Amino acid sequence: MSDETPESLIPYDEIVQDALRAVVGRVLREVEESGGLPGEHHFYITFKTRLPGVSIPKHLLERFPDEMTIVIQHRFWDLKVEEDSFTVGLSFGGVPSTLHVPFAAVTQFHDPAVEFALTFHADSAEAPAEEHEQAENDAPGDDAGEEPREDGSNVVSVDFTRKK
Q: What is the model's pTM?
């Protein structure tokens, strides 16, 4: 008897990734429908900037050629959630911008108010993302420099690139 796990003919990794990305879509849809964020909730959303369907202004693409993190908290508008993507208005350095992001491009979703986080791979053949700069969309007062805690509570990390 072999200790090796046989190759699955069912794409479990893709099914789980899609299901967890649906969580992000559902949360954003609830914010869209209610017209704002409840309580202290706010979101850090990291996504790959060059994947098909991503649409961000050229100056942002030049600054973030691989990956970008945005914050949906105080200053956002026109949040529209579709089956496979979302569009949101944000301000960067005082310049209003509209971003369109397919859920397939999202690599991280974090709500620091309740220490909930999901991690995805935009392309399962891709190596893990390198460190990148923090989000720079405008936020009032001291909130802009707030770092999420890294204690790991309520964090779901999905890594399908490793075989056991």
A: 0.72
